[in-house]
Write a structure and sequence with these properties.
Restriction Endonuclease, 8 helices, 6-stranded mixed beta sheet, 4-stranded antiparallel beta sheet
Length: about 300
């Protein structure tokens, strides 16, 4: 078996691999965590090794599943829920919470594990990569056709036409295979922007939609999916990083996205007018995705 630090930085091919690494982290944390500080609905973990203190990203007390046995039980339910979604069956209200809790626990276990075991610079990249892999695998398990596409957008230069590469995180399709390619975006398909946080990234999603619509010469469906918008402040507090005013300005005066979804939504997004545009991730995978994918 690989060392945990190496396993965390290794790409995951399916949900079972994600479940395995999650259980490894949950088993490891009690052995290394020196202190737990509760702040609002979050807990900040810290570890002292050889006189050096490391702090982990805040974990949501409601969403995060601490016990391996409880995670295994919820993960089993999670797979069954995705099977029901794949078969277009209506899921129960409590199933929405299971989707968000399991997805959150997997991703935050990886993040917290890297906070304690990996170099911060490489950890940032790997945490983002694992998030993209996780969401792609969730879509695949739910029976949604998906793929990555890099659009090649031509522009003039002194040397003749050059191409700007506009890389998508995921394309979702109602068809048996993704029809979008380097030169065109299929009108039925959804361009997904996947980021662990909207901090410093929200504006790019709106601009990318404008750019892609100019490129495609027809409306393009764009959805943003984020893990959370919360960060540690000092050693014992948290702060939210969602820029609500800017989001509404972009939405009202620039262009409107087909939806924005958080696995751990900032509190303000649950109030009007933000809740008209922002929802939990479970709402997208269980309901909204089929509406947006409809021609």
């Amino acid at each position: 078996m690989k060392p945990l630090s190496e396993d965390l930085q290794t790409p995951k091919q399916n949900l079972d691999e994600f479940a395995d690494i999650t259980k490894r982290v949950l088993d490891y944390l009690p052995n290394i965590v020196s202190e737990r500080v509760a702040t609002r609905d979050y807990t900040i973990l810290s570890s002292v090794v050889a006189g050096t203190t490391k702090f982990a990203r805040p974990i949501n007390n409601i969403l995060f599943i601490n016990k391996i046995e409880e995670f295994e039980k919820n993960y089993k339910s999670f797979l069954e829920i995705l099977r029901q979604i794949k078969n277009r069956k209506k899921i129960k209200r409590k199933d929405y919470s299971t989707i968000d809790a399991v997805a959150y626990t997997i991703q935050q276990s990886i993040g917290v594990g890297m906070d304690f075991l990996c170099n911060p610079n490489s950890a940032r990249k790997h945490v983002g990569n694992r998030f993209e892999e996780l969401i792609r695998n969730i879509f695949s398990q739910a029976g949604v056709t998906n793929d990555k596409v890099v659009f090649k957008i031509p522009y003039p230069s002194e040397e003749g036409d050059k191409y700007y590469s506009c890389e998508t995180d995921i394309i979702l399709s109602p068809h048996e295979r993704v029809k979008s390619n380097t030169k065109t975006i299929n009108e039925d398909e959804i361009v997904i922007s996947l980021k662990t946080t909207s901090k410093d990234r929200m504006g790019k999603i709106f601009l990318d939609k404008l750019l892609m619509q100019k490129f495609a010469e027809h409306p393009v469906k764009v959805v943003g999916i984020f893990l959370n918008d919360v960060q540690r402040k000092n050693t014992d507090k948290i702060s939210y990083t969602f820029v609500s005013g800017l989001f509404m300005v972009y939405t009202k005066f620039l262009i409107q996205l087909e939806g924005v979804y958080f696995i751990d939504p900032p509190p303000i997004t649950k109030t009007a007018p933000y809740n008209e545009h922002i929802s939990p991730f479970s709402q997208f995978i269980a309901n909204d995705i089929w509406e947006v994918l409809s021609p």
